[in-house]
Write a structure and sequence with these properties.
Chain lengths: 270, 253, 75
């Protein structure tokens, strides 16, 4: 049955090699998509009438922001599965997603600030979206801090999962309250959310970059999940074999992938 | 093993000495009675440890005094801050007693007894949170208008400030209880608590100050206050259950 | 479509005067992704070396010892 086949991957031992293959697939896609997206965004797309070249920041700002929100939803989803069904691997996936989500949120904030400075004159704009992004960053940090503060992995998983769920319920409320607050204090800030209507090229570039960021997220999350699984299943014979395989491949020298990561990561992640 | 109420043991309010004497008498077997007994016990304990409440109030007053020192005492500026500063200071001051919400009970084993109780844990939690709010939230709400007067808040806004805090502080207590339950027994719990609670309390802050701002600009505060009320109902519906789940996660190893 | 927007490489790098902001954004993205990948690599090394350290320390004692002593085997 299909369900049985799929649930097979809920076992860490079957998940590990599958995650490795999927991660490489995703990583490759990310590189290709990023190349295309950056070509479209930085080279092909026309200059914006109002913002000049500064608008090109959206090609990383919007994908980062989208990913920051998507990752939180997926993280909360896996956390819920782990909490309700007592599935360790689900909790591991949630924990693996969190750092990438936090980094995406940071990137959204950083690029947002760099976009705000030339267009609106200030390094920070208290518009609804940026302020909600800031709150989202705190939610991610709270999740990681709580998880890190608890020794027992099972309690850590479940406590952080509950926090993630409380957060996901609150995110729309926080967003709505910040929009309300923003309209109340309209005079003080101008909204970055009212972007000019986009030329097709710009939209295409943004979507391709969004996909690239998504593939990157999948790759990094699966790699991190593999490491977490090895740590948590340290007692299991298959995990010990896998660790030895990591150590063996890691010592090997050679040109490898030619990527900036170096050969050992490439081979060991296989 | 289960927390069966000893039928022959009656407890009078004044005879309650040790924290572990949480034994509602036979006439208080009902659910509401159990929660109320728990709340009364917590209030009595808070009354004996008055320093906690007073420390929280002192922090509130001191933190409020820092803003004019930092920003200058120009009255126009302070009048604009008059709604926000008491709210921010109250929010920060409410974090202090939260850290201790479950610690004493955890230390002496009462928490495990509560988890074993035949009464639904969310209701017992509601009792504890009510006591916490009565002991720490209400004093903050009552002192805040005095702080606002220091900032030159007009009289008509004072009542709205009070109302917004009376609606908002229980929400903070409820949300904070969930965070306190998650962080109970952990090192650095107070900081962790703040990190968890502050993002969640942003809507409360926004609507609370929004109500005061509405009055100051001549509009009706009803919108913001009713949003706060809705938030309180939502918190009352969801937070005790979440807090109970968090307690089970934290205590059941 | 108006084809390539840029006349020269230096014009492209300057980004119409907004070079600092555009490249600052892209550069931070690249830096963050690089740090993330490097940190994963470091974690992987740490995990792999856990075995190496344990193996070095336990070199004198085999992982599995015979359960029965000589006496029990004789019995």
């Amino acid at each position: 049955m299909a369900a049985q086949t799929l649930f097979r991957f809920a076992a860490p031992q079957t998940f590990y090699p599958l995650a490795g293959r999927l991660a490489w697939l995703a990583a490759g896609s990310a590189v290709v998509l990023a190349a295309i997206g950056l070509w479209i965004g930085l080279v092909i797309a026309p200059t914006d009438a109002q913002q000049g070249e500064a608008y090109r920041i959206i090609f990383v700002h919007v994908p980062a922001a989208w990913m920051s929100m998507l990752i939180y939803l997926v993280m909360a989803g896996w956390a819920a599965v782990g909490l309700v069904f007592n599935a360790r691997l689900a909790s591991t996936l949630a924990r693996a997603l969190a750092p990438t989500g936090a980094l995406m949120t940071f990137l959204a904030l950083w690029t947002g600030a760099l976009w705000g400075k030339p267009t609106w004159g200030t390094w920070w704009v208290w518009d609804a979206r940026l302020t909600s992004e800031l709150m989202l960053l705190f939610l991610y940090l709270g999740f990681l801090a709580l998880h890190g503060a608890i020794e027992d992995p099972r309690r850590a998983d479940r406590a952080a999962a509950l926090l993630a769920l409380v957060g996901v319920v609150n995110v729309p409320i926080i967003y709505f309250s910040v929009i309300w607050w923003n309209t109340l204090h309209q005079g003080a800030s101008v909204s970055l959310t009212r972007a000019p209507s986009m030329a097709t090229t710009m939209l295409a570039g943004m979507l391709v970059m969004a996909l690239a960021f998504w593939m990157y997220t999948i790759a990094v999350t699966l790699w991190r999940a593999r490491l977490l699984v090895l740590e948590r299943e340290a007692h299991a014979p298959w995990a010990q074999r896998a660790r030895k395989a990591l150590a063996g491949k890691g010592e090997g020298a050679g040109p490898g992938m030619g990527s900036k990561l170096g050969p050992s990561v490439g081979e060991a992640m296989r | 093993m289960s927390a069966v109420l000893p039928p022959s043991h009656t407890v009078s309010a004044r005879a309650l000495t040790a924290p572990s004497d949480v034994v509602p008498g036979p006439s208080l077997g009902s659910l509401a009675g159990a929660a109320w007994a728990l709340a009364l016990r917590d209030l009595r304990l808070a009354g004996r440890r008055r320093t906690d409440t007073l420390a929280s109030l002192a922090f509130f007053v001191m933190a409020s005094s820092l803003f004019p020192l930092a920003l200058g005492s120009e009255s126009a500026l302070l009048a604009r801050l008059a709604g926000g500063v008491p709210w921010v200071a109250a929010l920060l001051a409410s974090l202090l007693p939260l850290a201790r919400l479950f610690e004493d009970d955890r230390a002496d084993g009462t928490l495990e007894q509560l988890l074993l109780s035949p009464h639904p844990l969310p209701v017992l939690v509601l009792g504890k949170v009510t006591a916490h709010w009565l002991a720490s939230g209400i004093p903050l709400a009552l002192v805040a208008p005095l702080i606002a007067l220091q900032y030159g808040l007009p009289v008509e806004a004072l009542l709205v400030l009070l109302a917004s805090l009376l609606l908002g502080t229980p929400i903070l207590s409820l949300l904070g209880a969930v965070a306190a339950a998650l962080a109970t027994g952990l090192r650095g719990g107070a900081l962790l608590l703040s990190l968890m609670v502050l993002p969640l309390s942003v809507p409360v802050l926004v609507f609370g100050c929004g109500a005061v701002d509405a009055v100051l600009s001549g509009q009706s505060p009803a919108g913001a206050l009713s949003l706060l009320g809705a938030g309180l109902l939502l918190a009352l519906a969801g937070a005790p259950a979440a807090c109970a789940a968090a307690l089970r996660i934290s205590v059941e190893a | 479509m108006n084809g390539l927007t840029w006349e020269t490489l230096s014009a492209w790098l300057a980004m119409g005067g907004y070079g600092l902001y555009v490249w600052g954004s892209l550069g931070m993205c690249a830096a963050v992704f690089a740090c993330e990948l490097l940190s994963l690599r470091a974690q992987r090394h740490a995990l792999a070396n856990v075995d190496a350290e344990a193996a070095g320390g336990a070199a004198q004692t085999p992982a599995r010892r015979p359960v029965l002593t000589q006496q029990e085997q004789d019995a």
